[in-house]
Write a structure and sequence with these properties.
heterodimer; A: alpha/beta; Rossmann fold; 2 domains; four-stranded antiparallel sheet; globular; disordered N terminus; B: mainly alpha; MetI-like fold; 14 helices; 78% helix
């Protein structure tokens, strides 16, 4: 798989990443051949339904999944070193140091029995080998950076003394604490109310500009994607079904699944639509994937030959070669349908004016 | 924190007052006439009247209660119907052996439960987990009288390593005290350990699966550190609660074990008092056990508050 883009500033290069779990009902293939490059300063959004493999695929990069029963193959080059081939010992030096993590639920991702200062400093002390007081100074800076008022006074407070939004800021500060090259934000705003969500997204955008790190933003919320991403990968049944720059994805979606997702979004002020267009059926179980294209049972575009027998490759589509717009489907969505999806999408109005052709 | 402590102490005292009412009512609720049955064959109308008057049983019941309560507070729990010995003294003699056995059993129990529970949680679904589960299943269903007798048979009769029963004071002769203690402590400790193993395992599992443990791992902290500071530290809280309650049960007297090993504990004293209808002794024993249980609960809660900042701060704001 070649991606025709400059690769000089690639931070993380993932090739043929596969994750499977041994289960009672057989092998569950939860990530099936992921290829992508993450560039410095870029925000890559991983979008998909629950169970599409978006979280697992990033957790697997540093083996934060139970192994066994989990199994990870492929390569993930971070600065020329393959994470997948690394020993647990070497991975300890990557986790939290070169790859920072922010998880979904700020109510549970902080340990209730330790003050937040300690939870911030323990990683820094471990990775950077700095003294307790230096680590505390850094922690205060970080808390300020993420917008926690009176930071120096709050280091010894416990998580329950903070609101949900403030806690997520603390979790973000932890993720940033060792200046990682890559920040993986796994549904980082999903548990927050919309106002707080917007603040957190703004914060990450701003910190990213400041620090130049790359961000993988995992979400099932296309609204968040529009607000934060440079590039989007839509995942379905453990594989990428469509990948494009964010504007292109919203303006000119090509994969039947992406189009279905966009059409299923509610639009403020669109009174003419009585109900949301849902994609019929359910995603397949990872232990029982359909033959051929994994999406074919739910797809309006399928034929009954290739789609049911042959797994479609990820192929380049769209006008300019090298735009990096790829889909995993034998068929592209018809143009009028694409346009309908683009207008239906929650994307900002400017996306709707762009022409699909 | 101070307010929380005061609140909990107040609650404990209130509970103790409730217990005292029940204990006092015991004397009056049991069928039959306690004085009469205590006298048994020695019964004469004169003796009966004298005893009733001495016990104050001819006065209004509320007066009797406050009278009894007033004396109980100063440590005067009356005299035994049987022996004429002050109840407080009889209880006092049993406190030492009871505490020795209770703590001995608890130590045995924890020595089993902590490693077994922790290993079984960390190795969930693997051989050590199955071994620990099997042990706790057997331990919980093991009848203690049978297990005690088995130990006596093996270690006292067959091997002759340890005495089959009896008691020596720790202050007088520590070595002998330990020899007497070992078998009963193991008997009671295995059951305690089996119960505690399950709690240790489940609270460890809960702590292990907590989201903050995943974040701690994602920080790149070594597994041993995560286990110590983010799993064990959190798992302690429920473990300490259950351990405190277990200790309360043990301190209440493990009657069967005390009987099998001729151990002069509170449990046996209470059982004897029941059999001889020695109500003052029974009242005293129940009151003491209840007081100890409440005190332990209080201590557990205070430790809890130290370990879990949410409780501490929540109560003081």
């Amino acid at each position: 798989m070649s991606i025709d883009r400059p690769s000089g500033d690639v931070v993380l290069s993932v090739r043929d990443l596969e994750v499977s779990f041994a289960t009672r009902r057989g092998r569950a293939d939860v990530v099936r051949g992921l290829d992508y490059d993450l560039r410095r300063g870029e925000t890559l959004a991983l979008v998909g339904e629950s169970g599409s493999g978006k979280s697992v695929s990033t957790m697997a990069l540093t083996k934060l999944i139970p192994i066994p029963p989990g199994r990870v193959t492929g390569t993930a080059m971070l600065d020329g070193q393959d994470l997948i081939a690394m020993s647990e010992r070497d991975l300890l030096a990557v986790r939290g140091r070169r790859i920072g993590f922010v998880f979904q639920d700020p109510m549970t991702s902080l340990n209730p029995v330790h003050p937040i200062g300690r939870q911030l400093t323990e990683g820094m002390r471990h990775h950077l080998g700095i003294s307790e007081s230096d680590a505390r100074d850094r922690a205060v800076d970080l808390l300020r950076k993420v917008g926690i008022p009176a930071a120096e006074k709050r280091l010894d407070d416990y998580p329950h003394q903070f609101s949900g939004g403030m806690r997520q800021r603390v979790v973000i500060a932890i993720g940033l604490s060792c200046d990682p090259q890559v920040l993986i934000a796994d549904e980082a705003t999903t548990a927050l109310d919309v106002t707080t969500q917007a603040q957190i997204i703004e914060l990450v955008n701003q910190l990213q500009d400041e620090l130049g790190m790359a961000v993988i933003w995992i979400t099932h919320d296309l609204g968040v994607v529009a607000g934060i991403a440079d590039r989007v990968m839509v995942m379905y049944a453990g594989e990428i079904v469509e990948e494009a720059d964010v504007d292109e994805l919203f303006a000119d979606p090509r994969h039947p699944y992406t189009v279905g997702l966009l059409k299923s979004l509610p639009v403020l002020g669109a009174f003419d639509r009585d109900e949301l267009a849902a994609i019929p059926g359910l995603p397949p179980a990872p232990t029982d994937l359909p033959a051929g294209c994994a999406f074919h049972p739910r797809c309006a575009y399928r034929d009954d030959e290739r789609c049911v027998s042959e797994r479609p490759p990820l192929r380049e589509v769209g006008g300019d070669a090298g735009s990096g717009h790829r889909i995993r489907s034998f068929y592209e969505v018809a143009e009028d349908d694409r346009r309908a999806a683009a207008t239906a999408g929650i994307a900002a109005p400017e996306h709707r004016e762009e022409d699909a052709s | 924190m101070a307010r929380y402590v005061a609140l909990r102490i107040g609650q404990s005292l209130l509970a103790l007052l409730g217990v005292s009412i029940i204990v006092f009512a015991l004397m009056h609720l049991v069928p039959g006439d306690p004085v009469r049955s205590a006298l048994g064959t020695r019964f004469t109308p004169e003796l009966y009247a004298a005893l009733v008057e001495r016990a104050g049983l001819d006065r209004p019941i509320l007066v009797q209660y406050f009278d009894w309560l007033g004396r109980a507070v100063t440590g005067d729990l009356g005299v035994s119907f049987r022996t004429g010995q002050p109840v407080a003294l009889a209880l006092g003699q049993r406190v030492g052996p009871t505490a020795l056995l209770a703590f001995g059993a608890l130590i045995v129990g924890l020595l089993i439960a902590l490693p077994a529970g922790i290993v079984s949680a960390v190795k969930q679904g693997k051989a050590p987990d199955y071994a620990a589960n099997t042990f706790s299943q057997i331990g919980v269903s093991l009848p203690d009288f049978w297990f005690g007798i088995l130990l006596i048979l093996v270690f006292a009769r067959m091997l002759g390593w340890l005495p089959p029963g009896g008691y020596a004071s720790f202050a007088d002769d520590p070595a002998a005290a330990l020899r007497y203690l070992l078998l009963p402590a193991v008997t009671a400790g295995v059951v305690t350990g089996a119960i505690l193993t399950r709690f240790v395992r489940s609270s460890m599992l809960e702590a292990l699966n907590a989201e903050h443990v995943r974040l701690a791992r994602a920080k790149g902290l070594p597994w041993r550190y995560v286990l110590r500071h983010h799993v064990l530290r959190n798992a302690w809280i429920p473990i300490i609660t259950v351990t405190g309650l277990q200790l309360g049960t043990l301190l209440g007297g493990i009657i069967v074990v005390e009987i099998v090993f001729s151990w002069p504990g509170i449990g046996r004293l209470a059982l004897d008092a029941v059999q001889t209808r020695d109500y003052p002794v029974l009242q005293g024993a129940v009151l003491l056990v209840a007081a100890v249980f409440l005190l332990l609960n209080l201590l557990v809660d205070l430790v809890y508050a130290r370990l879990d900042p949410r409780i501490r701060v929540g109560a003081s704001t």
